[in-house]
Amino acid sequence: MLISAVLFGLVLGAIIGAAAFLINFCVLGAVADILFATDWRRMRAWMLAAGIALLGTQSLSAAGLIVAGQPDTAVPWRAILAGGVMFGYGMALAGGCLNRALVRLGAGSLKSLVILAVAGLTAAAVQAAAGASVPATLSDTPQVVTWVLAILVGGGLTALALADSWFRQGWRDVLGSIVIGLCIALAWLATTWLADPTPVNFAQSAGDLFALAAPHAGLDRGLGRMLGIALLAGVPLGAFLAAVMTRNLGFETFTDRGEFARNIIGGILMGAGGILAWGDTFGQGLSGLAMLSVTAPVAILGMFLGCLWGIRAFEAGGVWPGLKLAVTQLLKH
User: Fold this and answer.
1) What is the rounded CA–CA span in Å between residue 301 and residue 150?
2) Is 320 within a domain?
3) Does some domain include residue 125?
């Protein structure tokens, strides 16, 4: 079964990595495109992936093929929101989320390797201190309510994404987003079959990878967690293959000390924030939302706010001026 978990993780990760590379799938880039170019295409790609993930996951759940994780007795809402903000700000500093770092690693980025190592070490430390959880789901909600929510939210996101003809004309973006969304649902299916339902959550998996080397770290070595660790290898593998096929493979490293420091801080914030928020842009943003997690909207809100803050901090030249600028811009809209 362990071999199956690793193979599932490698294959699904490779598919996600190749698709994300080919369509330039990036939440930070999506927010930046909206702010500076009023271009919603990459955001529509994220919405389509989220909608397909939700519809696919809930269809499998309705068929009895997926078992949802049980919600914790107490949800630390403030920690989840704060963790989301930390993660969002961290990905602005690091130039992308953890999935983006894995994709860039496959395409030849040494910077991404450093970011992932720092994020993984931080996530392992925070997991050891605070523990880790899967997103709390709507497991106690009547099935008919779950179906209605799935159709409204999943269908709404899908329709909103495809409503724009400019986005629809980019068949590669549409197809890549659908593939990523389906992989989220298939990961839930695979980990349920392995009797350890676990979301695609790169923050948790990065922490697990480092905790795996520590015999006394207290890591729950379930097959779902092992599949997640295999995903960390699969994503850059898929991105590498896509980069080779499109002749976009290139070595990338830090240009100066300032960039190195920003990426280190970004990795720390993503590692800690991803654990506190119970997931990253995939763990809460796609996998959690796909399971209609009650914590996903809070975590996603925090990530987008943190991302906006981080982008504005670059513009304003500082953390607090950036916060002032972000708040000012939000109030204008």
Assistant:
1) 19
2) no
3) yes
